[in-house]
Recover the amino acids of this structure.
């Protein structure tokens, strides 16, 4: 998709449509004011009469608006100016793009507030790219169509390439997650990672079952035993700051399908379990974006890839696993498998002595119970590092919330026959007991765990986004890398 600065005032742009934003409770401003003037005050009158909504994500089309060269004007509500941020910019542009992407469009112009900082324009460009991408990967008749060309009205031309990279990388994550599990399994995911490495000149190493066995990754291998699909551990490295500079490690859970194992899920619970590799997909998408942006930072990605199935060799309740670092883990629930995969992957990452670590995982339904479907949970062993991660997420407008890591949660994963067990006591505090298990495998490196079980996947479409994978938290990871690169 081509994104370039507009060369004419918005009213003179020859396009299928123009998209403008309208704040709540104030007259049209910026490019919207230019449209209002060209149409003889039409926008202002329709807003005042309530015919055009200004609430966040509200989309109102005006066909053949007088005084406009474009075929239609799409008005997108921005909500109150005082509540607006980069996330709102992302969603606003996505809402307009999604509406227009219902049919092929050769050219669309976007005109938002000229007073926005460059980061908000970058977020809006990314949102426009994301809004055009649907989950209908295998439908003969697509519901969403990429816009042929996007013209951006304003002075923030420098923000356009970054917005395009972010938007395309989010869609890259979404496609990985939305692919059916018979086409996106550990080996095929590793193949995608190899292609990314080839395209961008990155270092990559992939461990297969034999190598994982040699490297004593007993916890990850146990989860993989029930499937005929070969497990993989992908390690990919971007050296934007030179080999001697500190490294940020990103670790992703990559359960490409989760049946629950012998603790089998119900039919309804299993329908969306192709999304259980969203953590790994988000890590790979972030590495892709960071490399394409050429940020002066070192980032390594570690993705543990397995299927959790019920084959004759499947691991069982009561089994005791020995992780790579020697910690023994008693299995109380084979559906608490993501933490078992991450245990070994975190150890591999920690052995490389990164300066800081972040892992992402669709880890617990308990986090969704606590925070809902749209907020990611943060847990950490280092408050200052967690604050940095949270600040980056806030900067790009992705909602996160920190959950506690009290010592009592350690007691809940104590086992009578092994060092620890893979679930807590009962149903309460499950997000924190899972994080406490992960903390056993990060040594003393500053580490933040992000539970993305809620925001990584949506079964219902939103105004700015089709249903399915969302690519949530990828922009936050890129922002973390940007902040490190400027230190």
């Amino acid at each position: 998709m081509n994104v370039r600065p507009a060369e004419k005032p918005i009213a003179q742009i020859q396009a299928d449509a123009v998209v403008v934003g309208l704040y709540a409770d104030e007259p049209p401003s910026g490019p919207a004011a230019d449209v209002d003037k060209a149409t003889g005050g039409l926008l202002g009158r329709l807003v005042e009469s309530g015919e055009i909504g200004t609430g966040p994500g509200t989309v109102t089309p005006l066909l053949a608006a007088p005084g406009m060269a474009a075929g239609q004007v799409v008005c997108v509500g921005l909500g109150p100016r005082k509540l607006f941020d980069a996330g709102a910019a992302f969603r606003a542009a996505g809402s307009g793009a999604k509406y227009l992407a219902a049919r092929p469009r050769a050219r669309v112009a976007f005109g938002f507030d000229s007073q926005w900082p460059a980061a908000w324009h970058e977020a809006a460009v990314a949102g426009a790219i994301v809004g055009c991408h649907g989950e209908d990967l295998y439908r003969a008749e697509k519901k969403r169509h990429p816009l042929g060309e996007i013209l951006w009205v304003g002075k923030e031309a420098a923000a356009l390439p970054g917005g395009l990279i972010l938007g395309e990388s989010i869609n890259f994550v979404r496609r990985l997650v939305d692919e059916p599990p018979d086409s996106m399994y550990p080996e095929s995911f590793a193949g995608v990672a190899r292609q990314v490495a080839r395209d961008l000149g990155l270092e990559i190493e992939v461990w297969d079952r034999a190598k994982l066995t040699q490297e004593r990754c007993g916890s990850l291998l146990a989860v993989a035993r029930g499937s005929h699909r070969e497990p993989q551990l992908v390690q990919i490295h971007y050296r934007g700051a030179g080999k001697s500079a500190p490294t940020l490690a990103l670790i992703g859970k990559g359960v490409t399908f989760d049946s629950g194992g012998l603790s089998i899920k119900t039919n309804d619970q299993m329908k969306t379990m192709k999304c259980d590799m969203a953590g790994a997909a988000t890590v790979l998408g972030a590495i892709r974006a960071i490399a394409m942006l050429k940020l002066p930072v070192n980032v390594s990605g570690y993705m543990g890839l397995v299927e959790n199935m019920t084959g004759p060799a499947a691991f069982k309740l009561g089994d005791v696993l020995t992780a790579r670092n020697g910690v023994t883990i008693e299995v109380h629930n084979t559906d608490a498998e993501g933490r078992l995969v991450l245990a070994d992957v975190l150890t591999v990452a920690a052995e490389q002595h990164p300066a800081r670590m972040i892992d992402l995982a669709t880890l617990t339904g308990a986090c969704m119970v606590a925070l809902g479907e749209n907020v990611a949970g943060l847990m950490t062993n280092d408050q200052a590092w967690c604050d940095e991660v949270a600040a980056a997420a806030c900067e790009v407008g992705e909602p996160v919330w920190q959950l506690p890591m009290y010592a009592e949660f350690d007691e809940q994963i104590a086992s009578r026959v092994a060092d620890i067990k893979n679930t807590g006591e009962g149903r309460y505090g499950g997000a924190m007991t899972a994080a406490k298990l992960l903390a056993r495998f990060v040594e003393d490196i500053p580490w933040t765990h992000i539970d993305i079980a809620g925001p990584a996947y949506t079964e219902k479409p939103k105004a700015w986004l089709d249903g399915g994978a969302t690519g949530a938290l990828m922009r936050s990871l890129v922002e973390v890398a940007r902040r490190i690169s400027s230190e």
